[in-house]
Design goal:
By secondary structure, this protein is α/β, with parallel strands linked by helices. The protein folds into 2 domains: 99 residues, Beta-Lactamase (2-Layer Sandwich); 247 residues, Rossmann fold (3-Layer(aba) Sandwich), CATH 3.40.50. The protein has 16 helices and 13 strands. Strands 9-8-10-11-7-12-13 form a 7-stranded mixed beta sheet, with helices on both faces. Helix 10 packs antiparallel against helix 11. The longest helix has 15 residues. The chain is globular.
């Protein structure tokens, strides 16, 4: 592979192979994330520092290049005609540029395509409240949110405003009107854009990551005042997500925040990607916490630690499920292996007991000391 369009060739290759990401690093051949594993691109040569810079500059503007020089990192997105849309992240390491490009499907997948719990289609049409999607980096949060937003867009007459950094999936107006605002291009400041959105007659606000106290406060306020607010967090499960929100506030403010959060919350959807048993890729294991009266009371009384037990007890009636229950369902369906489930579960012994109780074969025992989470995701 050589010439002025190396990056074009690399990006086309990962789309053809179904890889999710392309990594460019000096003195290494390009790497790609294929079925969850990071592997070298076959037939590609190591890249020089000049190669990496040239290819990055081929898909960035002069203004973006200036920002990269000033801040030493850059988030952006771009469209490759006839191939796909991509999100890029560029950064320096050991004085040289590196980059990661994430392929964004041209067509937004449906809830059914992603295998998400059907109850999410019921929750996403609530007229107001806070709808959180959480998970580690690379767990598919953006794709899940895009699928849910598209469901609203295709079926309901709503005004949807997105505030993104950068814009990833793009929406064509269907029954809804969708306005997408990119930080840097359409607004200078994320929090300011969120505040201004409240004056733009929105029904739905997609605001990306709840990253600080100011953003969380504005999101809860928007949810309290008649808007459906969609946000993400880099947390592993519902319990950790709620604790993170509360802990970001000083102790003397947490009581009031608990009351507001308990009133505004619709649900917390937490997901991780697990390798399929047949080797064909990865599937989302999805925990769903719905804000029932019992959950609301636990939040108000600062007893978030009791959430998992309530979720287990209320699973069938309220259509909730813990992460272990999601893993169990995938094992039972033959979608994932017990080994993969044990590796990713935070409570593998509880999962093993559930399998034995339900008469599901356990082909391997939980491995002690294996940390939860997605390795390299």
């Amino acid at each position: 592979m050589s010439g002025a369009s190396l990056l074009d060739q690399f990006l086309k290759k990962i789309v053809q192979l179904g890889a999710s990401d392309l990594h460019l690093k000096t003195e290494r051949p390009p790497l790609m994330r294929l079925k969850g594993d990071l592997v070298p691109m076959e037939g590609a040569s190591p890249l020089s520092a000049e190669d990496v810079q040239r290819e990055i500059y081929s898909v960035t503007s002069t203004a973006q290049q200036k920002k990269l020089e000033e801040t030493k990192e850059l988030d952006f997105s771009f469209q490759m005609r006839g191939v796909a849309r991509f999100r890029g992240n560029v950064f320096y390491q050991r004085g040289a540029l590196s980059a990661v490009f994430r392929a964004i499907p041209a067509a937004i997948p449906s809830v059914e395509d992603l295998g998400l719990p059907p109850v999410l289609k019921e929750l996403i049409i609530r007229p107001q409240g806070l709808f959180l999607v959480t998970g580690p980096t690379g767990s598919g949060k953006t794709t899940t949110l895009a699928s849910l937003v598209q469901h609203v867009n295709e079926n309901f007459p709503k005004h949807i405003i997105t505030i993104e950094d950068p814009i990833e999936f793009t929406y064509e107006d269907s029954k809804s009107a969708v306005n997408q605002r990119e930080v840097g291009a359409d607004t200078f400041d994320f929090t300011q854009a969120l505040r201004r959105a409240l004056r733009q007659d929105p029904d739905v606000i997609l605001m990306g990551e709840l990253r600080d106290r100011e953003t969380i406060t504005t999101a809860i306020t928007a949810a309290e005042t008649g808007h459906l607010v969609l946000g993400t967090m880099h947390t592993n499960d519902a319990k950790q997500s709620l604790s993170r929100i509360l802990d970001i506030f000083p102790a003397d403010a947490q009581g009031q925040v608990r009351v507001q959060l308990a009133a505004a919350l619709i649900c917390v959807v937490s997901q991780r990607l697990v390798k399929r048993a047949n080797g064909s890729g990865r599937v989302a294991a999805v925990e769903v916490l719905i804000n029932t009266p019992s959950i609301r009371k636990l939040i108000e009384e600062n007893r978030v630690g009791g959430i998992t037990k309530v979720m287990e007890e209320s699973a069938s009636f309220y259509k909730m499920q813990t992460f272990n229950q999601a893993l169990f369902n995938l094992i039972q369906a033959g979608t994932i292996s017990p080994e993969e489930a044990f590796a990713i579960s935070e409570n593998p012994n509880d999962l093993k007991i559930q399998m034995q109780t339900q008469g599901v074969a356990v082909s391997s025992a939980p491995k002690p000391g294996l940390p939860p989470g997605l390795a390299g995701a």
